[in-house]
Design goal:
The complex is a heterodimer. Helix content of chain A is 40%, strand content 14%. Chain A has 7 helices and 6 strands, in the order αβββαβααβααβα. In chain A, the strands form 2 sheets. A 4-stranded mixed β-sheet of chain A has the order 3-2-1-4, sandwiched between helices. In chain A, strands 5-6 form a two-stranded parallel ribbon. The longest helix of chain B has 24 residues. Chain B folds into 2 domains: 68 residues, Orthogonal Bundle (Rna Polymerase Sigma Factor, Chain: A), CATH 1.10.1740; 69 residues, Orthogonal Bundle (Arc Repressor Mutant, subunit A), CATH 1.10.10. Classes of the chains: A alpha/beta, B mainly alpha. At the A-B interface, helix 1, helix 2 and strand 4 of A face helix 2, helix 3, helix 5, helix 6 and helix 8 of B.
């Protein structure tokens, strides 16, 4: 046998082994057994009597974030910081936007939506769930909510928790007032926050003095 | 901060072709990025999902600065690979999960496949990634270089070294079969 024939046979055998090894390698790294989706927040904006609202809904249809005090960049940053990939999309927000429109037009007293409160701590969640039961046109107080959640001395903490409400209007933190019928705070100290609170209460027929 | 709709008007102005929306990048490449991470993580689906989510969060923040003619898949893979490098949570000798072991093979072959997978998990990360990209996903060397942040020659060398090690470790077993 000529030497180049021997080399060819050895080389051919080596290629064959490599092919088997690489086949086994491909078998060792198959496709994942199931596909994986991203955690996405679909967001959109709409005009309202209190200014531009930015809203976000998850793929599961739950409302994740509503803001009237953050610009587009700040709103998207908040979604990113919460670990959601933002995708601008109206379709997923249709039910929320329609119901908000109806609320501002005085045609809706209750929001028929699921909300995602997974980003808040248990105390805040408890405050928001209790606040969600304050009816359209009604009001409660920080101390009243505190008493209802079993922490009667936590009125200030209730105020802070309401300030962390990710879904205002739908969870109606504007219906919670200070003692003595005073308007209290709103929108994390936004300069026109109290005017917005009065506007929202006005939609519900509630008038608050200065 | 990018425009959240990710339409990137400042990039479009200097480009012939319109840049794809970020949403279209998700639709087009998310499954592939997840597959790549799943393999890099040796079949750990939870780690792969977390890394995939983080990949697209990082990508969203960086998308506005990306040249319009960028190779989007390689760019996303590179983010994914760097996150994998930064956050490797599994020990280097980790074995493949049962989920990854190839089904419907005889015991010897299945053991060998599992052993090869586990061995690849012990390779340096760059060689592991290069091997998977080249011989599992069939990527070109220039794209592998883009993912790994090295030249095409270096990508080729990493694949070569990885194959050489696999061959040295398992070639004899194949010769004896």
């Amino acid at each position: 046998m000529k030497s180049h024939d021997a080399r060819w046979i050895l080389r051919s055998a080596q290629d064959d082994i490599d092919e088997q090894l690489l086949g086994a390698l491909r078998d060792a790294f198959p496709e994942p057994a199931r596909p994986s989706g991203l955690r996405v927040a679909y967001w959109d904006e709409l005009e309202s009597p209190i200014g531009t609202l930015r809203v976000a809904t998850g793929e599961d249809g739950r409302v994740r974030l509503i803001s009237f005090w953050k610009g587009e960049g700040g709103f998207v940053d908040e979604l990113l910081d919460a670990g959601w990939v933002p995708v601008k999309d109206r379709r997923h927000n249709d039910p929320l936007e329609r119901q908000l429109d109806e609320f501002f037009e005085g045609r809706r007293q209750h929001f028929d939506l699921d909300v995602d409160l997974s980003s808040v701590n248990p105390f805040t969640r408890s405050v928001l769930e209790t606040t969600a039961r304050v009816p359209f046109g009604g009001t409660d107080t920080y101390s009243g909510i505190a008493a209802k959640i079993g922490s009667p001395r936590a009125a200030r903490a209730v105020g802070n928790a309401l300030g962390a409400n990710p879904v205002p209007i739908v969870v109606p933190c504007h219906r919670v007032l200070a003692a003595g019928g005073k308007i209290g705070g709103y929108a994390r100290g936004l300069p026109n926050g109290l005017n917005i609170k009065r506007t929202l209460l006005g939609v519900e027929g509630v008038t608050i003095g200065l | 901060m990018p425009a959240a709709s990710a339409s990137r008007p400042e990039v479009l102005a200097s480009s012939q072709a319109p840049a794809p929306s970020f949403e279209s990048l998700i639709e087009q490449f998310q499954p592939a990025v997840y597959r790549f991470l799943y393999r890099l993580c040796l079949g750990n689906g939870h780690d792969a999902e977390d890394l995939c989510q983080e990949t697209f969060l990082r990508a969203f923040r960086a998308y506005a600065a990306l040249p319009a003619d960028a190779q989007h898949r390689a760019w996303l893979y590179r983010i994914a690979y760097n996150l994998f490098l930064n956050g490797r949570r599994r020990p280097p000798n980790a074995e493949l999960t049962d989920e990854v072991a190839a089904p419907r093979q005889d015991d010897d072959q299945r053991e060998l496949v599992a052993a090869i997978g586990a061995f690849v998990g012990t390779l340096p990360a760059k060689q592991r990634a290069a091997l998977i990209l080249r011989h599992v996903e069939g990527r070109e060397y220039c794209e592998i270089g883009g993912v790994l942040g090295c030249s095409e020659d270096s990508a080729r060398a990493n694949v070569f070294q990885a194959v050489k090690k696999v061959r040295a470790r398992f070639g004899e077993e194949y010769r004896n079969r």
